[in-house]
């Protein structure tokens, strides 16, 4: 049962708002985000262009909306990859201590040993730039995070008496993990997912910034930030709008994570 | 009698969220007097202690007066109360595990308690801490100032908590169920310590407990509490004569627990046989080449349970009884030895055969609050062992089985749809018993199953268990550290110490004429009602 708290309400509204924006951006934007209109370049915010235009005349608002679906998509799928692989690994490590546990944890340590963003850059540089490869690169780093969180929470659940009672009923570790351990981890994993999602947003923006995320003409917040670097004196709004958008989404996700955590704190 | 009371509570009324917790409570303690405050859980005894300390929840509504040495505590500001707490009133709580900060050395914790009230240098405070710890019997090296709480046993930690509470020689000491979480011998020692400290320092002591036997051992007066009010009060030595109120009589009966009548029935077949079981735990390596000898938690234990009989297994913490129980339940494999259930090998059986045998032995665990998955409903919980059957019953049959099990333990079939959190500790243990009954096993193992319950509820559950054993012809293996409980339910008793059985025999014989000195020591430590 989720009690209403300010953090939860604000966080949920922002997150839902962004998802709606992303969904809308898939079907409709005020202008075509890749339509050039050099004549209108570097226009400040106005009635025609709410957020202004960039150096090639593209409508900033449309680019943000178009970029939203890209960014949200990348972050979401990478979290799904991370939890889809990481949670089972964590459950297995906690249920069967000994060799499988050691193997999984050393694998985790191996991935953790590499600086995440550098490895993401390496992977996309090898596999080629683009949204899909960005997903893979970010997703790989979510796996050990989920594995570790799941394992430590599951370990403490395995010491509870009710898993002992389930074993005395003849249930094996797989069944107990699915029936008793995993359901009691859901609120914790949900919170972790929101954290990883917000990190994914930042990571995607970072990859686009160095040119390894979605390629033009697909709009991307990170690339907008990159291109705005050289124009900060001429048109500071070109950096402010995408920057604030990233900040706002991450804030919303973190508040959502916070709000989800408080009632279910066990 | 003419001296001003140390603590005077008058018409204290405490309400929380509309419900009345303390109802016109009046109590007084003379300086140097030891008062026992007895009642079942929920009677308001701990609330009384919190009310005296001014530690009630913020939204509690309080009326009436509490006076310490004539000064009214109710009208004091938070600052003034902070000066009183620790220096003039000390308090010791129930759980030694959570009473101490696990990250602070014990010397620092006691010194901190001292420095909160006296302007002393670190060295002087340390010296005082050393004296306080010596005063509670924790001398070096066991009570060295630089030890951490996790290096001490439960009884030792409770002594540290007592040292913290008495370091500044407060006028009044409140002990709220200080020994409930301890073994019999530790309990006896801590009670003796509290009594000695109170008499030695001339401190008033309020000993709160649900167990009349504990209270009658060393108090001057007894006050019985029920539903927020004192129902009876008299000098302890008149306990037998003046206990009139039915509630007091129930507490008295629950504290004594009548011994089981020896049954003389024909010997029956052995349902559970444990032969020379050894269970070891590896210990930390001493060096790269040197492995430390493993810890033998269970060192060649043999025992037998016959059909329809109740076998008690007595041991204190560290005796290995829980480890033995887990091996008996085939949850852990013993290093050597055999465990045979209904004549068939259990611990070394293959998975399918083992699962089939599991329906003949079930378990009831200690903690009523941790033994259930918090997300499951009662019906699912009780039906869980049905998994061990080859032919699992269909939903309708399952519901009937659960309903029958619930009724057998004194609950109603409608309770199947509720969540365990809606039930009290005693009711939860009934649910746990229903879970153990559903497969109609030959043996039920109980791991300290009544130790976490208060005296009255404990007596009720023991009565239920005795009735069930007789009606359903069940055999019990009852593990407990409390000799009173074992005496009231077991036909035969095994005494376990440091992984070995030191003595065993029929209950009456073991209690009447114990052979081994350890058994005698346990019997001496058993709390008795002094009438």
CATH architecture of the largest domain in chain B: 3-Layer(aba) Sandwich
What spatial form of chain A do the alpha-carbon principal axes imply?
Answer: elongated
Strand order, biggest sheet of chain B?
6-7-8-3-9-10
Q: What is the CATH H-level superfamily of chain A?
A: MetI-like
List keywords for this structure.
heterodimer; A: 266 residues; MetI-like fold; 70% helix; elongated; B: 531 residues; Rossmann fold; 3 domains; six-stranded mixed sheet; 19 helices; 35% helix
What does this structure look like?
The complex is a heterodimer of chains A (266) and B (531). Chain A is mainly alpha-helical and 266 residues long. Chain A has a single domain, classed as Orthogonal Bundle (MetI-like fold). Chain A has ten helices and no strands. Chain A has helices at residues 6-27, 60-95, 99-113, 116-127, 131-158, 161-168, 173-181, 186-209, 221-228, 237-261. In chain A, 45% of the residues are buried. Chain B folds into three domains: 7-256, P-loop containing nucleotide triphosphate hydrolases (Rossmann fold, 3-Layer(aba) Sandwich), CATH 3.40.50; 268-358 and 446-453 and 469-526, Rossmann fold (3-Layer(aba) Sandwich), CATH 3.40.50; 361-440, no CATH class. Chain B has 19 helices and 20 strands. Chain B has a six-stranded mixed beta sheet, with helices on both faces. In chain B, strands 16-17-18-13-19-20 form a six-stranded mixed beta sheet, with helices on both faces. The model of chain B has no long low-confidence stretch (mean pLDDT 90). Chain A binds chain B through residues 160-162, 164-172, 180, 183-184, 266, and chain B through 326, 329, 331, 351, 354-355, 358, 362-363, 365-367, 370-375, 384-388, 435.
